[in-house]
Design brief:
About 35% of the residues lie in helices and about 20% in strands. With about 260 residues, it is an alpha+beta fold. The strands form three sheets. Strands 1-2-3-4-6-5 form a six-stranded antiparallel β-sheet, with helices on both faces. A two-stranded antiparallel sheet has the order 7-10. It has a two-stranded antiparallel ribbon with strand order 8-9. The longest helix has 27 residues.
Length: about 260
């Protein structure tokens, strides 16, 4: 027997998020047991084509999206997870894999899980990704600042992760950064601002007042970021102010949708 749904979730590289957790539906598939949910692919065959010959695994689907994460059971279960995308989600996963492959060496302050194998089909894409062992989520402003600085320096012109948040940073030496599907061109200070805001408005590690203090002149964090990342302070401030405005506008829309 594979175990409970909660135990299956813990096998995946994303730890529990509390209030900020990605909304996922866990399906448990065992040898000989019919699949309750229709899938646009044969999981066992797909795993085999990626190099993992097993018919035992946990699978989670992202609510509202044709994306899945699988954790195979077997000799490689402690080192791999498989992300699968279908239909209009294929390009997003391919972009994520390209970014992770290009930045594979991360640097001294950041570890990026390696892409182990890929499977390309018509309207379907899958990638086997290194899973970080015994990882746990932590909230740490200093670590987030160091990672934001590393992202500013990691590529020739820097890169914005797009979802730098406590649940996407896995503890370690160095810490690992996962979920690159929102990566985009570099915007100074945006990753750190997103970490602070999501820690307040999504995960409740900070109050809203504390978050805005951290990003204010009095907090001093943007000064440190600009100095350590060799970025212009005024440009960093403008970039962060614009992002804060976009973030809060999005939150208002989300809150209105929940109330309607």
């Amino acid at each position: 027997m594979y175990g409970s749904a909660k135990e299956g979730c813990r096998l995946l590289y994303r730890p529990g998020k509390r209030a900020g957790r990605w909304a996922l539906t866990l399906g448990l598939i065992l040898p000989g047991r019919p699949v309750a949910t229709s899938l646009p692919f044969d999981p066992v065959q797909l795993l085999r084509e990626l190099g993992y010959a097993t018919d035992r695994f946990a699978i989670m689907r992202s609510t509202g999206r044709d994306q899945w994460v699988m954790s195979p059971r077997g000799p490689d279960a402690d080192r791999v997870l498989v992300k699968v995308a279908a239909g209009n989600q294929v390009d997003s996963l391919r972009r994520e894999v390209r970014v992770m492959s290009a930045l594979a060496n991360g640097g001294a302050d950041l570890r990026i899980p390696q892409i182990l194998s890929e499977n390309h089909r018509t309207n379907l894409f899958a990638a086997a990704i290194e899973r970080v062992p015994t990882a746990r989520m932590t909230f740490d402003l200093e670590s987030a600042l160091a990672i934001a600085v590393a992202l500013a320096q990691i590529a020739p012109s820097g890169i914005t992760h797009g979802d730098l948040a406590p649940w996407n940073i896995l503890d370690g030496q160095p810490p690992s950064l996962i979920d690159w599907e929102l990566a985009k061109e570099f915007e100074p200070g945006v990753d750190f601002a997103h970490y602070v805001l999501s820690s307040a408005y999504v995960a409740s590690f900070l109050s809203a007042q504390q978050a805005h203090w951290v990003l204010s002149e009095r907090g001093g964090y943007l000064h440190r970021y600009a100095r350590l990342a060799s970025q212009d302070l005024d440009e960093t401030r403008r970039s962060v102010e614009q992002y804060v405005s976009r973030f809060l506008s999005t939150r208002r829309v989300v809150d209105q949708d929940r109330q309607s």
